[in-house]
Design a protein that fits this description.
Layout lengths: L1 E5 L11 E7 L2 E2 L1 H9 L3 H6 L11 E4 L10 E8 L5 H17 L4 E4 L11 H16 L18 E5 L3 H29 L7 H12 L5 E6 L1 H7 L2 H7 L7 E8 L8 E5 L1 E5 L19 H16 L4 E11 L11 E3 L5 E3 L7 H12 L6 E6 L3 H7 L4 E5 L2 H14 L3 E3 L4 H4 L9 E2 L7 H10 L7 E5 L5 E2 L5 E2 L4 H9 L3
Parallel strand pairs: 1-7, 2-5, 2-6, 6-7, 10-12, 10-15, 11-12, 14-18, 15-19, 16-17
Antiparallel strand pairs: 2-3, 4-5, 8-9, 9-12, 13-14, 16-19, 20-21
The chain binds ligand BES, manganese (II) ion and zinc ion (ZN).
Length: about 500
């Protein structure tokens, strides 16, 4: 989809499809009202029929306007004027996206961003529009040869804005949203691929390809020999059970002086997690192809940052592996030595994510990072604790936690802070090694974060558990691309 800011008078507008808002009850927004004048009161007269009231997400599709130059109008309900929350605005946009998907118009023009959204700006309104429409137009088609519904026709969207300042704001917002959307698409596409296609090697190849898009992005792939030489015994132990070799993807984005310390993003890249010898139950095991969503979101975020050419330095690290049972796999009770030197007793081979991440955290130290954020589908317990709305957030640094929470609220890719108290650390005690890789049944998402915190003492660090937010289950099964919007917003805020 192509997006543009367009400055034109409603009186002289030409469009295959115009989207405008209507407040409750039946109160046209300023542009809708001008359009109504142009259409000689058509919209008001249709509203009088009472088909829609203007509740959030209400839709009225006018397929014939009597005006040759305006083929269609989509009226979108925005609720009570002055009461539109960012979340309600998103619901309205989702309804608009549904209508856009269904229309046969190839081009459309929207004025929905003129809605007054509580505490928000024009830039936010336009970015949300693009991110929601792009997201709703996304389809995973790569591996379907049959029964594909025809693709939506819409391929060009204009935003109606007036005045040099608003035009500049809109253009900037479009640029940012397009970059974010591209990052989300990359994350979804990689995550939706099955484990037999998206192996650690495939993931690394894709990261290399994406890396080639920008001169400021350098991608290196570490193979098992490199990982061995680095002493990543915890990471390598997970991939022992698989014939697919492990990879560590290293993406370095240099947007400013090489001396400036980078932000490091680490993404869990389990291209399939069967649990290993502590094998998972069969039901829904297919969904463990999504266990690389953290890694995919880091790759997507780096692509977005490079696209926007943000003047900061960012490093993306994706330890990638499978976790399968076999004669050479980790066994419960095995003790491995991490790159940090700490020995770990593997009491459950299904708690593998932390074994990869701990070595990646130790590796991150060499960058002397300003901050490190790891992103992982780490625990089912996080879904039990928080459901599927926020990602869990843990951090050893108040400033970093506040920055992430702020970015989450802005991008509406939300998080909820969880504790990292000393009391929980005791659950990770082992009789035979420095620590165990599980902390028992209580507070599983917290003890997982506590485990990671032991490897993140030298820098401000945050951990996002995205087990509940990275994909949808059920009929709508598929990757969401979260938390790319959050990561990109956090990095934009660092400029
Ligand atoms: N990848 C899973 C976590 C997960 C489970 C994500 C369900 C999304 C949905 C992780 O590797 C795992 O298996 N964690 C275990 C930890 C346990 C053995 C301490 C879990 O959550 O059951
Ligand atoms: Mn697991
Ligand atoms: Zn896992």
């Amino acid at each position: 989809m192509e997006y543009k800011a367009k400055s034109e008078q409603v009186e002289s507008l030409q469009s295959a499809c115009v989207l405008v808002g209507v407040y409750q009850k039946r109160k046209l927004t300023p542009t809708a009202s001008l359009l109504d004048d142009r259409l000689q009161g058509l919209l008001e007269s249709l509203l009088k029929r009472d088909d829609i009231e203007g509740k959030v997400g209400d839709l009225l599709i006018v397929n014939h306007t009597g005006d040759q130059a305006i083929e269609r109008v989509i009226l979108v309900g925005l609720g009570k004027s002055g009461e539109l929350t960012p979340k309600a605005y998103r619901s309205a946009l989702n309804a608009a996206a549904r209508a856009l998907k269904a229309t046969h118009a190839k081009h459309a023009l929207s004025a929905l961003h003129e809605a007054e959204v509580e505490g928000q700006t024009l830039s936010h309104n336009i970015r949300q529009f693009i991110e929601i429409v792009d997201s709703s137009l996304y389809r995973f088609t790569e591996l379907k040869t049959e029964s594909l519904a025809p693709a939506p026709k819409i391929n060009k969207m204009d935003f109606l804005v007036h005045g040099a300042k608003s035009i500049a704001t809109a253009e900037k917002a479009i640029e940012q949203a397009e970059a974010t959307s591209m990052g989300v698409r990359i994350a979804k596409e990689l995550a939706n691929l099955p484990g037999n296609v998206c192996t650690p090697t495939y993931l690394a190849d894709q990261a290399e390809k994406i890396g080639k898009r920008s001169k400021k992005l350098k991608t290196k792939i570490l193979d098992e020999r490199d990982l061995e030489a680095l002493g990543m015994g915890a990471f390598l132990s997970v991939s022992k059970g698989s014939v697919e070799p492990a990879r560590m993807i290293v993406m370095e984005y240099t947007g400013t002086s090489a001396k400036t310390k980078p932000y490091v993003l680490i993404g869990k890249g389990l291209t399939f997690d069967a649990g290993g010898i502590s094998i998972k139950p069969a039901a829904s095991m297919d969904e463990m192809k999504y266990d690389m969503c953290g890694g995919a979101s880091v790759i997507g975020a780096l692509a977005a940052v490079a696209e926007m050419q943000l003047p900061i330095n960012v490093v993306g690290l994706v330890p990638a592996s499978e976790n399968l049972p076999s004669g050479s796999a980790n066994k419960p009770g095995d003790i491995v030595t991490s790159m940090a030197g700490l020995t770990i007793e593997i009491l459950n081979t299904d708690a593998e994510g932390r074994l990869l991440l701990c070595d990646a955290l130790t590796f991150a130290k060499r960058y002397e990072p300003q901050a490190v954020i790891d992103v992982a589908t780490l625990t089912g317990a996080c879904i039990v604790a928080l459901g599927r709305h926020p990602s869990g957030l843990w951090s050893n640094n108040e400033e970093l936690a506040a920055a992430i929470t702020g970015a989450a609220d802005k991008s509406l890719d939300r998080v909820w802070r969880m504790p990292l108290w000393e009391e929980y650390q005791d659950q990770l005690k082992s009789n035979f090694a420095d620590l165990a890789n599980i902390g028992g049944p209580d507070g599983g998402s917290v003890t997982a974060a506590c485990f990671l915190s032991k490897f993140a003492k030298d820098f401000p660090w945050a951990h996002l558990d995205i087990a509940g937010t990275a994909w949808k289950t059920g009929a709508d099964k598929g990757a969401t691309g979260r938390p790319v919007p959050l990561l990109v917003q956090y990095l934009m805020d660092r400029v």
